[in-house]
Amino acid sequence: MLTASPLKYLTLVAFGLTLAACSSPVDPDSPEGKRQAAFKQILNHSEPMVGMLTGRLSFDGERFAEHAAQLQALSDAPWEYFPSPGNSNQPNAARPKIWSDPEGFSAAVDAYKATVEHLLAVTVEGVDSADQVRGPMTEVQRACKSCHDAYRR
């Protein structure tokens, strides 16, 4: 069995604490803070939906539809909080391409909103099975991934 010496352990702990101290927390009232909060809310609804479709959570059509409605309600939330280049000194994961390709970014946002709208439309009359929503949810995930691949570090 391998054991670390106390010095190695303390060095690792000190290094970890140093890294934690170096990170600057995001001001929750800043555009970055509001954007991060909006994306967290989106994630709080999309993760259970994916969990239901992958079998990690038991499928509940009514609950899935509720999450889809919340996802749609949040679909406009984060986009207004992307700062103009140079207007913020807080860290963010946005690539400069967001500002050099505003039409492309806008098209990616519109594609995401359209897939969420379609998912909601499928759930409005009720959800009887995972198969009913698997395709539309996959499209939402693809829209998210596409935007992340192009515009997020």
From TrEMBL:
Which superkingdom heads the taxonomic lineage of this protein's source? Bacteria
**Entry keywords, A to Z:** Electron transport, Heme, Iron, Metal-binding, Signal, Transport
Q: Which residues bind heme c?
A: C144, C147, H148
> What cellular component terms from Gene Ontology apply here?
periplasmic space
Query: Does Iron appear among the keywords?
Result: yes
Q: Name one GO molecular function term.
A: heme binding
Q: Which Pfam families match?
A: Cytochrom_C_2
* PROSITE patterns referenced in this protein's UniProt entry, alphabetically: CYTCII
Indicate what this protein is called per its UniProt record: Cytochrome c556
Q: Which organism is it from?
A: Halopseudomonas yangmingensis
